[in-house]
Amino acid sequence: MKRSLVVIAFVVTACGGALAQANPAFEPLGRESQLFVVDMNGKDVIRLTRDDENHAEAAWSRDGRLAFLSSAGGSVALEIMRLDGGDRRVLLQDPVLSWGGLSWSPDGRRLAFATFLERGSRQRVETVAADGSQRTRIAEYVVPWNGPFGPSWSHDGTRLAYARGFGTGPPRVPPGPRPGPAVIPGTMKIVVADAAGRRERRLTRLRGEEWNPQWSPRGESILFSGGTRGERVGLFAASPEGKARLLAGDLIFIYDAAWSPDARAVALLATPYVGDRRTRLLLVDVRTRNVRTLAHADVASARPSWSPNGRQIAYAASDGIRIVTAADGHTELLLSVPAQVGELAWSPDGAWLAFTAQRVPED
Question: pTM (2 decimals)?
Answer without folding.
Answer: 0.84
